Amino acid sequence: MGVACAVLPSRSAIRQEARERRDAPGQSAAHPPAQLPGAFPGPPFTLPHVSDWPSLPPLEATGLRCERGERALFDGLELRLEPGEIVWLRGANGRGKTTLLRTLAGLGTAAAGELRLGGRPMQQVGPEWRRQLIYLGHANALKDDLSAAESLHFAARLAGTPASAAEVHAALTALGVGPLARRAVRTMSQGQRRRVALARLALAPKPALALLDEPFDALDDDGIERLARLLAGVAEAGGCVLFTSHQQIQRLRPAPRVVMLPEAPPGRAPSGPVPVPVPPAPTVAEAPR
User: How far apart are alpha carbons 116 and 58 in whole angstroms?
Assistant: First the structure.
């Protein structure tokens, strides 16, 4: 039996679509952009259809166990994510932070336990909730030969939420890379590439749940400030942000709830995450990059 595969558009098709969107008239008045306060320094950033966002029910992990090979990364994990909060997932290397994010995003399978959305098992939840979820891994996942704007058009198209040229430009501007819209990704620094990748979060029409793996990596102070304001805007609009970071982030408002994946004694599976207050830490500028 054959396997059905999605046919990805060619580079020329992506560029042609980007040109058509750039030259198209302004967006329809049927869905004028709604204000997203505090998204980035300077002029207000807008995100379309904020008034249409449904409230995300609590996402709960109960007794969750994930493994790598024969080794348990964590076991008996209990976690609850509420609308309007920012959660900082911390832990030593190899404790399973990325695995947890991928499992919550539906990109991995837990060995045991259950995920529930609004009290319903995830298997019974329709695909509509995934359109409200955005997952950004530690890799930028950008095509070197595409421009920044073309990369965002491509990502939006794959997500099933095509974006206008104005929306793409606003998203890039939110991360401070608007002037690089037509530059090829291959000519950008690592920090600039990271900003372009993170602009997907600003572009997502309904980011009710954002799962971000090391989003502050490679960002300078300006990039950190812009991303912090964007995450705060998502939370203020009723979304939930779960992110990992080994940097000491002190600019997030509201202050994030910290969940620690603790070390486990040799031969024993780690216990579930333990909520802890944000510890005193050096400023971001003093933290190693």
Answer: 8
- Do β-strands 209-213 and 133-136 pair in parallel, antiparallel, or remain unpaired? parallel
Round to whole Å and give the CA distance between 285 and 288.
8
85 close to 235: Cβ distance less than 8 angstroms = yes
Cα 266 from Cα 270, distance rounded (Å): 10
Confidence (pLDDT) at 241 = 95
Q: Which band of pLDDT confidence, cut at 50, 70 and 90, is reported for residue 170?
A: very high
Q: Distance (Å, rounded) from C-alpha 169 to C-alpha 192?
A: 15
- Percent of all residues in the chain with a pLDDT value above 90, rounded to a whole number: 52
Q: Confirm if 147 and 139 have CB atoms less than 8 A apart.
A: no
Task: Give the pLDDT score at 279.
Answer: 40
**Are 61 and 99 a contacting pair, CB within 8 Å?**
no
CA-to-CA separations, 160 to 3, 4, 16, 107, 206, in angstroms, rounded = 21, 18, 18, 17, 12
Kind plus residue range of the DSSP H or E element containing 201: helix 190-203
Strands 59-68 and 112-117, how do they pair? antiparallel
What is the C-alpha to C-alpha distance for residues 66 and 263, in angstroms, rounded to an integer? 15
What is the per-residue pLDDT across 115-152, written as a single tens digit (0 to 9) for each?
998 888 887 877 777 778 899 999 999 999 999 999 99
Helix/strand/coil for 112: strand
Note the pTM of the prediction, 2 decimals.
0.75
Measured distance CA(59)–CA(57) in Å, rounded: 6
The DSSP annotation for 206-270 comes to --SEEEEESTTTT--HHHHHHHHHHHHHHHHTT-EEEEE-SS-----SSPPEEEEE----TTS--
Q: Dihedral sign, CA of 64, 68, 70, 72?
A: negative
